[in-house]
Design goal:
The chain is mainly beta. The protein has two domains: about 5-45; about 70-200, Lipocalin, CATH 2.40.128. It is about 15% helix and about 35% strand. A hairpin with a 2-residue loop joins strand 2 and strand 3. Helix 1 packs antiparallel against helix 2. The protein is globular and about 45 Å long.
Length: about 220
Amino acid sequence: MLFSRSARTSLASAALPCAALLVGCADPVGRYEDFIARDTAAREGQGAGEGGGAGGDAPCALPEAGAADGDFLFSLSAYLSPRTPIVFLAKLATEARDGGLGFSLRFQPLEAADRRTPTGTPVDVGPYEAGADGAFTAALPTITVPGNANPISGSDLEATITLTGSLCAPADFVCGDVTGTVARPLRLDLADSTFAMDRITDPTSYPAPVIDCERRPALPLE
């Protein structure tokens, strides 16, 4: 990770009222620029001493083509507010490829109020490739998330992200790091964010969302 959890928490506390994911500041642009300056200083001061996505990039055995297919609860955890992720229903589909495994995903945003009700338009991405050691890098196209799926502010947002992780048999849990940018409502670097996707075994009872490879839980719904 580019900076410690404690540094991230203090930055989030100071910046959340005026960061790109939030609204309502008297001078949102000026205060956002102040936040970016503090954020950059914290990142440079901490360096790269803490590894991101623990367990998300370790070599492993790939699942057989088709064996990992199914529905997952996908949590995108932005570092500004890591325990309030944006949650999606993700459908995974895999196919055999020479030297690896191809996979595609369908992302359906879920309402933040219950993390269950579909909202907005689903997005199909892929195919991408996981190598023989399970590692993958998936550069997603720009995704728009409606405001009622954004638990931080309720604002519509637009982001272009890349997922880095490993697809390991039996692939019931997949996790890793997120990089990229939020473009709307204001530009924000998402470096040091994480994702986690947990298999849904019972469509009537989704698993409680976790936010990273350490399986840290998201904050419960109020």
